[in-house]
Amino acid sequence: MVLKIVFPLLILAWSGNGNAVKHSDSASEPRQFPEHFRFGAATASYQIEGAWNVDGKTDKSEKDNEATEDVRQFEWGQYAHPIFSESGDWPAVMKEKVAAKSLEQGFFSSRLPEFTQAEIDMIKGSSDFFGLNQYTTALVYRNESVNGKYPVPSYYDDIGAVLYQPEEWESSWSGTTWMKIVPWGFYKFLTKIREDYGNPPVYILENGCSTDVGLQDDVRVKCLKLYLDALLDAIDEGSDIQMYTVWSLMDNFEWYEGYADRFGLYEVDYNAEERTRTPRKSAYYYKELLRTRTLDINYEPDMSVPMTIDEGK
Ligand SMILES: *[C@@H]1O[C@H](CO)[C@@H](O)[C@H](O)[C@H]1NC(C)=O
Questions:
Q1: Do 267 and 210 contact (CB within 8 A), yes or no?
Q2: Rounded CA separation 207/224 (Å)
Q3: What is the pLDDT of residues 157-196, one digit of tens each?
Q4: N or C: which end of the chain has fewer CB within 10 A?
């Protein structure tokens, strides 16, 4: 059985404290990927997005940390907990919160349908791998300002927390408001999967960042380096991550964003009748990464060499 998680939002929340990301001190040393690790470049996939919350600098209150864990359980625990947790079923916090709100709102029973024990048992463990699409991270807080912020009843009112991304976090492109570059959120998410769900095999089915038109996509190369470095940190600490798929092979229709946001290693000229595809700098970088199976942050592609499709091994 293949796990398919459909969740169209683009945020994962994280909370915690301290700079848990170990970004290798020897930052400039090339890092090898494990022998059986697989790579890809996607043109379509399903996604679950991680909202996280921590910048390692803010002294989060107990309340904010709890709110962040609640967001995580609603945003992706909702899908992952029934399948990957030891106990199965919805996350406890989701059951409690929706039931309490429902009662408050005069419903006769919880708006969250209950699984039967047979369903819990059937769903639990029914996957071959944990398929993850991850781009960015949000911070979370909970205080009086949530009162009246959301419609009642609503999903966000049930969670009762506020997600946000600090202005000062770097965007990959100003046109994509949500795409903040947050590799530590990726690392934390991968670590959380390992710790909470008994280290299942993880396939990264989407990861990447948006840019404007242009072949010199240094930001995308930077994203690749930072996120893959974070992924290798998680692997070093025991995470069973077996595959990385970059989003995307070429520019394409990006749901809410249409054609404005470019995610491709290859640029597509939408004005040309042939929809001409041209490799960006990131295509050269990714090709070398696949060839060497090594993350070398010092590698500078020579874009004057024509791109070729080489024989695989
Ligand atoms: C709630 O917390 C946020 C983030 O720390 C802060 O900006 C806001 O002023 C707070 N609101 C209230 C009502 O305490």
A1: no
A2: 8
A3: 999 999 888 999 999 999 988 899 999 999 999 999 999 9
A4: C
Domain count, the chain: 1
- Pure H helices in 73-182: 78-84, 92-104, 117-123, 155-159
Q: The domain spanning residue 100 has which CATH number?
A: 3.20.20.80
CB 70 within 8 A of CB 159: yes
147 in ligand 1 pocket by Cβ < 6 Å? no
Cis peptide before 248 (omega within 30 of 0): yes
Ligand 1 contact via 62 beta carbon (within 6 Å): no
- Residue 310 domain-assigned (yes or no): no
- Rounded Cα–Cα distance for residues 162 and 140 (Å): 5
Range of the domain at 130: 12-16+34-293
| H or E, element range at 141 | strand 139-141
Query: 270 in a domain, yes or no?
Result: yes
In a domain, 26, yes or no: no
- C-alpha triplet 64, 65, 70: angle, nearest 5°: 95
Pocket test residue of 59, 144, 145 for ligand 1, highest count of atoms within 8 A of CB: 145
Residue 7, in any domain of the structure? no
**Cα-based distances in Å from 170 to 21, 63, 190:** 18, 27, 21
Report the separation in Å between the CA atom of 145 and the middle of ligand 1, taken as the mean of its atom positions.
6
Size of the chain, expressed as the number of residues it contains:
313
Distance 16 CA to ligand 1 centre (A): 18
On whether the pTM is more than 0.85, the answer is yes
Residue nearest to atom 11 of ligand 1 (CA): 145
C-beta of 61 in contact with ligand 1 (< 6 A)? no
The predicted pLDDT at position 46 comes to 42
